[in-house]
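dumping the sequnces here before i forget
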Amino acid sequence: MQGQIMDYPLTTNTILEYGNRVFHHKRIISHLPDGSRHEYTFGEMYARTKQLANALKHTLGVVEGDTVGTFAWNHGPHVELYYGISGIGAICHPINIRLSIQQIEYIINHAEDKVIFVDATLVRMLEPIAARLETVRHWVLLNAPEGFTTSLQNAHRYEDLLEAEPDEIDWPALDENQACGMCYTSGTTGLPKGVLYSHRSTYLHAMTILSPNAGNVSNRDVVLLVVPQFHVMAWGYPYLCVLAGADMVLPSSNLQPAALIKMMQAEGVNKANGVPTIWLGIYQEMKKDPPAEPLALEEYVVGGSALPKSLIKAFQEDFGIQGIHAWGMTETSPLGTLSRLQPQHDRLADAERLRIRAKQGIAFPGVELRIVSDEGTPLPWDGQTMGELQIRGAWVIDSYFKTGNRESFTGDGWFRTGDVSTIDADGYMEIKDRTKDLIKSGGEWISSVALESTLMAHPKVKEAAVIAIPDERWIERPLATVVLQDSSDLVTNTDLKEFLARDFAKYQVPDDYVYLKEIPKTSVGKFDKKELRRLYAEGELGE
Amino acid sequence: MQGQIMDYPLTTNTILEYGNRVFHHKRIISHLPDGSRHEYTFGEMYARTKQLANALKHTLGVVEGDTVGTFAWNHGPHVELYYGISGIGAICHPINIRLSIQQIEYIINHAEDKVIFVDATLVRMLEPIAARLETVRHWVLLNAPEGFTTSLQNAHRYEDLLEAEPDEIDWPALDENQACGMCYTSGTTGLPKGVLYSHRSTYLHAMTILSPNAGNVSNRDVVLLVVPQFHVMAWGYPYLCVLAGADMVLPSSNLQPAALIKMMQAEGVNKANGVPTIWLGIYQEMKKDPPAEPLALEEYVVGGSALPKSLIKAFQEDFGIQGIHAWGMTETSPLGTLSRLQPQHDRLADAERLRIRAKQGIAFPGVELRIVSDEGTPLPWDGQTMGELQIRGAWVIDSYFKTGNRESFTGDGWFRTGDVSTIDADGYMEIKDRTKDLIKSGGEWISSVALESTLMAHPKVKEAAVIAIPDERWIERPLATVVLQDSSDLVTNTDLKEFLARDFAKYQVPDDYVYLKEIPKTSVGKFDKKELRRLYAEGELGE
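..and the predicted 3d for all of it:
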């Protein structure tokens, strides 16, 4: 037909090629797991990514549609993997290193990863399960010193692989709707679920998140990516920083508050992201040991858990640094909302402005929110009425990988978040509660239901209910309330911890246990968690 | 398939609905042709747009795929037309009111406009050609006082139309690749050519142009849209201001420098756009009559013609206001590049920084540039080598409306701009020359070839060559060099002007004429315009 626009698919290759053409001189600075600092340019990253793409095809036998796992911290090679794997039409699957080893095994088998790229410092975690990984044909060791040894079969050093390859490649023609990335949910309500991101959704999410109302990232910024690349594609920052021409600072495993502060100082970081726990730690460290020179840091974007008002306030008052609250989920690429003040808020009192900043914020263009009643009726945006938060849009999934599960989707095309929210007249969404079964500790979900069912599998436990209790460092920690089969039984916290540790990641295992005669129940006989929270989480009988 | 992202088409309706949901309280302020000021909100605009959409369907019989013309200044109703027409799947076709009446007649017939929405103050221009417009079934009068009379058949008052309609509508499901807008080129090299924009290209262009490296527009901005809505969809600003939640100030015909300054003061405008001529006029006015209070204006984005270094410098030094140079074409939606300084320029001398700002700038993500030799070979990005500028991307056309013309497109999928440019190592493009036949006066193209062929059609003219000469107000004006058939003929400038005025818009007719014995020729016998420019445009023999 005459009178058309060019067909120009939105792919990760268009991002990579753009970054090289226009921002080849911009920098990627990695503070590697061994403590060394590495700096190179987008142009150098681009050349190495093409070498990687050639190695994937030639040495590792990866073809379009294959999934390729990564098990790694944030650093330059991991950025190369994001672009190199998806560049040849394969699917980059960062694996959350903080899950239990059972979950990791399940995820790799379920995703059918053909190759796994693993940081040398993390290799020991995977060696014990390697024999049970059904689809993995090759292992590639990142940041591995020469002569590094492993029991993994078919293991290659990343640098050796790249060295053997030319840095030119003809990218294949890709459909923007095909998958480029994959993440698993944390398995809070059963097994972890796989989520595929398309090239298009990745591009649109990144282009939107760099906009001034959102992350506000430009070629004048130096951005610290605290959010791990194994967490929902690091919130899209490895893509959006290239689109924006922003320098990236990647901390790998150097996530201790003092290390991050030193890094921000050394690199002139002015923007950053992360979960609240990290920023609480940084604040406390800065309070304890104030930096001699003020940081260049202007703002940090926080998601993963609610950003406490008190932290927003303290960071701003003590150091003039703005906390920007955002919200999203694995199923939403992840970012869906962000809270910045608008001119209509300029005249409000400080407390009121803080209240708005502590909300999860307004939706970005490209996604839509609604709250609905239990019957599915849309509810008013009055800032008062609470309902289940639902979302749809250009980077929201319409199904999980390899499952027919439709529970999380409405018949009319919305994703059910499981959060209970209000939305005010200006569109600011606030999460008021959530599916009561979930605990979020240091940015990671913990399923109380899963803990309970395991605890109740212990021979001496009759009933167990797990709730979240406030925690200074992790925001929330699980507390297990337990009724023993026989009150004369002798069961110690250590017994229960050891029992749980067989199935759960370390951070998921409760530190605290309360032994009760019975667990309060609702009228229909369910555990009354509201009552438990009142008793143990809100200070009535708690510490 | 399982594991997919939702199908979420990028349409103008998603923009409109988003603006209403999240930024319903943001303002559209119109300074109307009669001098009155009108202010309303995005929410009110949204309700009226739905009334308009209903009127288009019910009263005006517009169906999906129809073209609907607008002949109007910048104001709220014209924004409603942008969204209302495309919202029902029809194509919004703003007609450039500054073209000659012959061109306007040609364009309306070629576009097959079914309805034309016309400002009451412009109705007299169209009445004389109405009978020759083959497809127009209805006229709708914008900003028309009650009792306004016209000879146009089937004329309706816009307000009457809207009033009769409900403000609820079920938008049809639209394919993001279908057309939502249409503009014609200025016909610089022959007849005007039609260009269709898709919903997708419009969305992606707007979302990209609001980004921090580009227009940098957020919900904290008050933006003055000097660029007319009849010029390439006002550079996408009516879309991107809604996406960004920025207040829009629309000046309609109040484009005199003093009026614009007063408007910026009254409305607290902090960002603006426009062609260089407008900003030169504003600068001169501010110099002559400095505002008592400094303007809130921070920056103005200029495109359409080269932004002179001297103007960038003077505006900045005298008033602290930044001129931001951008470049684009009707065929590119229009914006393709923009020039902002980056951190690597911070250490440069002022003169060098000015030199970079005066370049057309770096490409946006979503479009790609290249320069090629006469043989089509890509040339190096060294800031020195000149070649034809070519562009491709997500908002560049791959064909013109209703023509098989392929001259403007390369075999490998690039659009040939006709500009001759350099690109430096950092991707900054600079237009060095252009297809020698074009003159750009006050942001409007004038074809020297077209003027020449008409001049040479005058019985007493033997040869005519038209070149651009510098002009303080219009940047460039055409100068006609003429050889008479008989040197004893008596021909006045007025004769030639009147002769040209039959076929050309007023601004296209040269003011200046030089009578020569012969026109210098190149070795192959073509007019040597380079030599003419040396003689008359660069001061050798000029004024």
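The longest helix of chain B spans residues 42-58.
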